[in-house]
Amino acid sequence: MYNDRVLERIERFRIFFEKDEPEQVMVCVSPYTFDNAFVGFNSNGKKLKEWRFPEDIEQNISSQIAYMDYYLEVTDGLDDDYVPIVSPFLGVGFLGAMLTGRDVVFTDDTSWVHDTVDDWDEALSLKYDPQNRHQILIQSILRELKKKQKENFTIGSMSHFAPIDMANAVRGNTLFYDYYDNPQKVKALLGRIVDYTIDCQRALRDITGEVEGGFTTASMWMPGDGLFMSEDAGDLGSSELYREFAMPATQKVLSHFGAGFVHHHAKGWQIHKDITKLKDMTAVEFSWDPNCPRPVDHLDELYAYHTHKVPLQIRCRPEDIYKNIEIMRKFRLIIMLNVENVGEAQDVLNFLKDKGLR
């Protein structure tokens, strides 16, 4: 089903996850690096708000595939570890609407929902609804993508909100008052969202199927029947709040699937140690943000509790690798590399090979 390029990179990740030892550094050149229109990496420069769904599903998928073909052509011969993935992206607002059914406003490169669920009775009755128009749309997109799949890319089901992120989508920023005013209702809502996330992912995976015994997301192949979850709302509170509300709910989802990838941001430095304690987590991304400490600049601190037990994905530039190579080799590390051009990426790969890490 897949060509040699895809299968070879899947095999590299299979070895990476099976080998529970340090001195493993995977490098995925970020698709943001090269000339692209960002939104879904589509090839014709259309902004997200310019697509009309469901009418444009076929054209949208064809455009994403055309961009993937372009990216793979540009990087042909580059021996990095990037696993080609095409998956639906309709903005963060759309993810919440898949549960609440609210109207979505599309912008150039994301989406928003301004009508939150203010009534607790409604919030606590939310569940996966296959008749939700947004669920119907995302499943239609995946079916079209499955029909058009080629051997040079894999299909990712969707990037999910972690339960606390979805609670934030449901309640808006009132959630951060709810922690104190309605803690038991927040926990009940998170329980509903855990069930929703499981049911939703199962429905999507029934369409996409597995990928060589695993799943693909965030430029990687990972073993098991897992999913992507963003823990961004957890970053906006204390570690105590994270452990009380977000962590148990995220753990229930991970435990159900037995695998999963968790993404969060450097704004949440205070909760990263807690995130590394999640069981059944296949890997974690610690992303950099403006005006926040960059994880790549604090690998010594992270190593004190992270070690190589939980594979860590970070973003960095070539100069960060040259500077931090000795501490990097102590981890099981997945680097999302931002470069100016393919030649710069190849220089990094050659450097890592010289250091015995490729």
Description:
There is one protein chain. The protein has 358 residues and is α/β, with parallel strands linked by helices. 45% of the residues lie in helices and 14% in strands. The strands form four sheets. The protein has a seven-stranded parallel beta sheet. Strands 2-5 form a two-stranded parallel ribbon. β11, α11 and β12 form a beta-alpha-beta unit. The radius of gyration is 20 Å and the shape is globular.
The amount of helix comes to 40-55%
Low-confidence stretches: none
Which percent band covers the strand fraction? 5-15%
Widest β-sheet, arrangement of strands: 1-13-12-11-10-9-6
Number of helices: 13
Order of helices and strands: HEHEHEEHHEEHHHEEEHEHEHEHEH
Total beta-strand segments: 13
Distance between the termini: 27 Å
Major beta sheet, specifics?
7 strands, parallel
Given the C-alpha coordinates, what overall shape results?
globular
Mean pLDDT: 94
Structural class: alpha/beta
User: Cα-atom Rg, whole angstroms?
Assistant: 20 Å
